[in-house]
Structure formats: C-alpha cells, structure tokens
Amino acid sequence: MRVTYDPAADAAYVELAGPLGDGEAATTIHSIVTPGDRGEVALDFDADGRLLGIEVLGASAVLPVAVLAYAVRIG
C-alpha cells in the first residue's frame, strides 16, 4: 500500500494494489461526500470488482495527520 499527497491540490491517493496504469480502473465511483461536507472520496475498482485505490479530495480535513505524514509528497 502506498499513499501519495499533493499539498497544492489537497488531494491524496491510497494505492491498495500498486500504481494504476492507464485504463486499469474499470469503474470509478465519484463524489462520495464526507460527513460535514469536508471533502470528497472516489473509489477505483478493477473489472473483477476489486478495490484498487481511493482518491481523497480535501485530504487535510479528512485524513488523519499520521496518514498525511506517511504520504509521499507529489506535485
């Protein structure tokens, strides 16, 4: 598992199955709004319905500080 964080976009991505290649996510469920409307979450699934990754927008308000500290900075 790998977590990346782009501070400029305040977006994080949790890779559950390694880095995704183009088109590897067969289905993405978008716009899951977090409680308190503090951020949004998108879930990426493969063709077999396995969860591949989780994108978190508004990451600094939604994710625990320890997760952001662990994350690889990008951007």
UniProtKB/TrEMBL annotation:
Transmembrane segments annotated in the record for this chain: 51-72
Alphabetically ordered keywords of this record: Membrane, Transmembrane, Transmembrane helix
Domain of life according to the entry: Bacteria
InterPro entries: DUF2283 (IPR019270)
Annotated protein name in UniProt: DUF2283 domain-containing protein
The species this protein was found in: Clavibacter michiganensis
Taxonomic lineage of the native organism: Bacteria, Bacillati, Actinomycetota, Actinomycetes, Micrococcales
